[in-house]
Design goal:
- The complex is a heterodimer of chains A (552) and B (436).
- Chain A folds into four domains: 142 residues, ATPase, nucleotide binding domain (Nucleotidyltransferase, domain 5, 2-Layer Sandwich); 110 residues, Rossmann fold; 192 residues, 2-Layer Sandwich (Nucleotidyltransferase, domain 5), CATH 3.30.420; 79 residues, no CATH class.
- In chain A, 33% of the residues lie in helices and 25% in strands.
- Chain A has 15 helices and 27 strands.
- In chain A, strand 24 and strand 25 form a beta hairpin.
- The longest helix of chain A is centred in the C-terminal third of the chain and has 28 residues.
- The radius of gyration of chain B is 21 Å and the shape is globular.
- An eight-stranded parallel beta sheet of chain B has the order 2-1-4-10-9-6-7-8, sandwiched between helices.
- In chain B, a hairpin with a 3-residue loop joins strand 13 and strand 14.
- Chain B has 436 residues and is α/β, with parallel strands linked by helices.
- Classes of the chains: A alpha/beta (552), B alpha/beta (436).
Chain lengths: 552, 436
């Protein structure tokens, strides 16, 4: 049995799945003041009828880190950065306690200016004197050589309670994003670890001896100990859960648009040949651009409870939400009121219907329209607003720069052939979207708890990045803190073998379960003769859907 | 960090194209530049936008070149994409709302002449010229200044705009007596209609930032002030760098950044530069930041040493003299024109053009038929050891009816001794060719 829980802004959803069938679901309201008890009371209610021995694992999508960042309830962090030559980034907007140190690494991974021991000592002293308990250490090009960050962090060990090193966050280049990511990881470190400790305690109390996994922004999961070291990767797992939910509930092989329509927002995703699109550089949260691997998702202020108003004889829906729909006692007319008028909402009575009718009539548009016509116009407009957004996003996606002749000439453009929707208003809106887009619109079963199903069915995702510069003899795999020497003859085949070996050694993941996803190999030249290869590889655990839902 | 100057960046490193495996113009040339730009977070800077490359069409190439026998057999996809990327930059500035644009592209183009038999100096088609002629489709009278800061003389661009007073071409380069392609002396100042609008500033080997910036301040900027171009283009070769393996100059990344800061080009197009690990990552970053009006003071090569790059007193002195000579020529351009071309009806010249990359030699006779009423006609007779022998007629922009008719009659009545005959009528934007 697989258990999934998705802690959202207003609701927590849960699902128990066994052998491709949903056995039980649950939906509760969230107590924003006590997320921890929200999770554990929901979980114990969800698991009530089952024998805990039958549970294989529990996967949790949590807003713990996201909320801490959005609400700025995070720990102060001593941010130690070495910018080296190039852009002299400031970073004072990120943390008031920034310490710039000398020392630099170039793009090849060569230490061109070694870090100064005296400076290490004086910065450490300042950090201790200021009472900072958390440190983030980041140097430019640390993904090409981990040595400087490691030295600084080693020196700080024991002097502060925890240090995060930039190279451990991601194998990708982008120094400012690495700084943001490392900073956030440390800033939410205590918040998340407190939650993790309490969770472990709650589980032993419930006699739940099963692995607890945490959902990541890329739709994959990680075990709790990994999450405790990388809490920043738990941000924005909500949208990732929605996407995984749709994927596990539908069989999609083509380019598609995925929508999660909620009360206040609609989240938009895209699939290319059935595979989700990822954010090009990483997740963005509260103005922090990060390197956290995340599904590409765009949230717009448009949902069932969005306010409907007439501006210059045109109907606008959202982005503001004033409260509940008018039919349920809210202050203003909403898209949900239009759905009630059209009989698209279950469990409504005559009182709801008459209030919704009054609200929709008050819009008075188009002139001389019946209340049903106005309601239909509102929903058509809502579908149009979504289409305008996806059209704009698709234009941008298809305009993104490419760097080879092959890609420029032959790469296919993203061209969605179907739409898949989950969320409360999904069913009501589907026919309108179908008409506006002229595409088939699918609403999968369990469309209102897709997120929990997505969490339950997620799999481990892991990436390793290898850069080998044979001309200077440096190989690095930053995610695991490795920088080692190589000879000029080091080959692409050797590099691949080394990467698979590391997957096995560090994560106990076999070669057949991994795949190379990015590969380039250039001949480096000194004078006019070759001087070894420049190899770049990225490998990941093969994505797989081990549990596909039976109903489909 | 941000400014309100909107910069478009078209980055096309052509990671799948090389002249040959160990040739300087090979796949990894912009790899380390890409590393540096990504690591610096260029993509997240608000006022810099990365645009996708585009591919130029044969008709874009035909507005500049006579490719022999035709565009399709001479030009590869990578060249068309480089030119298309430059066009993308032009559109970004002319109608895309950007203040400036940088085409960080390869292969380069500034050695490509009007006639194209193959690859010379790693170039087949002239990216800047194709871009300029694209802009002139909608703005026929556009006044353009090209400042070529590649270390090699921009002989191709010079050849293309030799007779055009509406296109000012200034080339700063290492003296041709010491470097490929050998041309570009101070005395090469343009053809009868463009006399004085080709300006060559051949610098001595060992010139450093100081000397380079001196020329910008005391020659290039004053000339631009007077010429008042609508658009300034920088042919941004990066091989004046002290670490470049093919040249002998001492310019640094800071020097390049300051040069761009002073020049404020509307569009910069990458040309040469083959110190791909030690120079390009820093020079490109410096140019990019200067163009985007951002702080570039921290851009520095790890091995930069000011003392070692200091230029000698002799070089100081030589550059001062050279600059005043250039300014003399510029000030007296009308008088020089009268002396050289007054009362002439035909001006002819011959040259031999060597295609080093493809090992082809071309012999060319060029004839300018002058006209009292317009810019007249340009007639090229050329043959090469690829067994082609061509006649190419260009009817200049603004030519009178008589010249237009004469051009067509030359094309129509060309003798059978040519393998191909070409006509480029800029008045009616028409390109004709026939194989004989």
């Amino acid at each position: 049995m697989l258990v999934g829980l998705d802690l959202g802004g207003t609701h927590i959803d849960g699902a128990v799945i066994d052998d491709g069938a949903v056995l039980k679901t649950i939906k509760r309201e969230v107590d924003p003041d006590d997320l921890f008890s929200t999770i554990w009371t929901t979980l114990s209610d969800l698991l009530m009828p089952f024998d805990t021995k039958d549970i294989d694992r529990i996967t949790l999508s949590t807003t713990i880190s996201t909320n801490a960042i959005v609400e700025q309830k995070i720990d102060p962090v001593g941010l130690i950065v070495a910018c080296g030559p190039g852009i002299t980034h400031d970073f004072s907007a990120i943390s008031p306690t920034v310490f710039h140190i000398s020392g630099s690494i170039d793009h090849r991974g060569i230490i061109t200016d070694p870090i100064d021991q005296e400076q290490i000592e004086s910065v450490s002293k300042k950090i201790v004197n200021e009472g900072l308990d958390h440190c983030a250490v980041v140097t430019k090009f640390s993904t090409r050589n981990v040595e400087m960050e490691t030295r600084m962090a080693d020196y700080l060990e024991g002097k502060v309670s925890h240090v995060t090193m930039g190279h451990r966050m991601s194998g990708r280049l982008n120094f400012p994003r690495r700084v943001n990511t490392t900073y956030l990881n440390e800033a939410v470190y205590s918040v998340f670890n407190n939650f993790a400790d309490k969770s472990s305690a709650a589980m032993s109390k419930m006699r739940l001896d099963v692995p607890l996994n945490i959902l990541k922004a890329d739709g994959g999961m990680m075990d709790l100990p990994t999450a405790q070291e990388h809490p920043v990767e738990t941000i924005l797992s909500g949208p990732a859960a929605s996407l995984s939910g749709i994927l596990s509930l539908s069989k999609i092989r083509e380019d598609a648009i995925l929508l999660d329509i909620g009360g206040t927002t609609t989240d938009i995703f895209f699939l290319a040949d059935g595979v989700p699109l990822f954010a090009p550089d990483g997740a963005v949260i509260s103005d922090y651009r990060t390197l956290v691997r995340a599904v590409y998702s765009v949230s717009i202020g448009l949902g069932g409870d969005s306010r409907v108003k007439l501006v210059d004889d045109k109907v606008h829906i959202g982005p503001e939400r004033e409260g509940k729909p008018y039919a349920y006692g809210g202050p203003a007319v909403t898209a949900t009121d239009a759905m009630i008028v059209l009989g698209l909402v279950e469990n409504t009575d005559d009182r709801h219907l008459s209030r919704a009718g009054a609200a929709v009539s008050s819009v008075g548009w188009p002139s001389d329209a019946s209340v049903e016509q106005t309601a239909a116009s509102i929903l058509t407009q809502m579908a149009r607003t979504i289409k305008e957004t996806t059209d704009r996003l698709l234009r941008n996606i298809n305009e993104r720069p490419v760097y080879t002749i092959k890609e420029l000439l032959h790469e296919k453009k993203l061209d969605p052939r179907s739409i898949h929707i989950i969320g409360g208003p999904a069913k009501a809106l589907a026919p309108y979207l179908e008409e506006v887009y002229s595409l088939e619109c699918h609403v999968p079963p369990f469309f209102d708890i897709g997120n929990a199903v997505g969490a339950a069915l997620s799999n481990v995702t892991k990436e390793l990045t290898l850069t080998a510069n044979c001309a200077v003899g440096i190989l690095s795999v930053p995610e695991i803190g490795l920088t080692e020497g190589i000879t000029e003859e080091f080959s692409l085949a050797q590099a691949k073998a080394r990467l698979f070996e590391l997957f096995n050694e560090i994560y106990h993941i076999k070669e057949q379960d991994c795949e190379i996803v990015e590969e380039s190999c250039y001949t480096m030249v000194r004078g006019f003769s070759s001087a070894g290869k420049n190899i770049r590889l990225k490998a990941q655990v093969k994505p797989r859907m081990i549990h596909v839902m039976k109903e489909i | 960090m941000e400014s309100d100057k909107k910069l478009a960046l078209v980055f096309f490193p052509a990671f799948d194209w090389a002249i040959s495996p160990t040739h300087p113009e090979r796949e990894e040339r912009l790899l380390y530049t890409q590393d540096q730009l990504i690591e610096e977070g260029i993509g997240d800077i608000e006022n810099i936008t990365m645009l996708r490359s585009d591919i130029a069409q044969s008709k874009d190439v035909e507005k500049v070149h006579f490719c022999v026998p035709d565009v399709e057999s001479r030009v590869t996809e990578s060249h068309l994409i480089a030119a298309g990327s430059a066009i993308r930059c032009a559109d970004a500035v002319m109608k895309g709302g950007f203040d400036s644009a940088f085409a960080l592209i390869r292969p380069p183009g500034h050695h490509a002449h009007t006639v194209v038999y193959g690859d010379r100096g790693f170039c087949i088609i002239n990216n800047e010229a194709i871009m300029i002629e694209h802009m002139r489709k909608e703005n026929p009278d556009l006044k353009v200044a090209i400042v070529d800061t590649d270390c090699h003389h921009g002989d191709g661009t010079s050849d293309i705009y030799w007779n055009d007073s509406n296109t000012l071409f200034i080339s700063l380069h290492q003296d041709g007596r010491t470097l490929y392609p050998g041309t570009g002396s101070v005395d090469e100042i343009g053809g009868p209609s463009g006399c004085g609008y080709t300006i060559n500033i051949p610098l001595p080997p060992g010139t450093s930032d100081e000397g380079y910036l001196y020329v910008i301040r005391h020659a290039v900027l004053p000339i631009l002030d007077e010429f008042k171009p609508d658009i300034v283009i920088n042919s941004a070769g990066q091989d004046n760098h002290y670490s470049d393996p093919l040249t002998n100059m001492n310019v640094s990344a800071q020097g390049y950044a300051q040069l761009n800061h002073l020049l404020h080009p509307d569009i910069a197009v990458l040309e040469g530069g083959y110190s791909i690990e030690g120079a390009l990552p820093y020079v490109n970053l410096g140019i990019l930041l200067a163009m985007a009006d951002l702080d570039f003071s921290g851009v520095k090569e790890p091995d930069y040493c000011r003392e070692r790059l200091q230029q000698s007193r002799q070089i100081d002195e030589y550059i001062r003299m050279l600059t005043s000579r250039v300014m003399e020529n510029w000030k007296n351009r009308k008088t020089i024109r009268e002396q050289l071309y007054e009362n002439k009806s035909i001006v002819t010249s011959t040259k031999r053009i060597y295609y080093d990359t493809d090992n082809i030699t071309e012999r060319q006779n060029r004839k300018y038929i002058l006209c009292d009423r317009c810019g007249g006609l340009e007639i090229i007779e050329s043959d090469s050891d690829t067994h082609h022998s061509i006649l190419a007629v260009t009817i200049g922009r603004g030519s009178c009816e008589r010249c237009v008719n004469k051009g067509y009659s030359l094309y129509k009545n060309a003798s059978g001794r040519y393998t191909g005959v070409y006509l480029h009528d800029k008045v009616n934007d028409s390109y004709l060719s026939k194989k004989m």
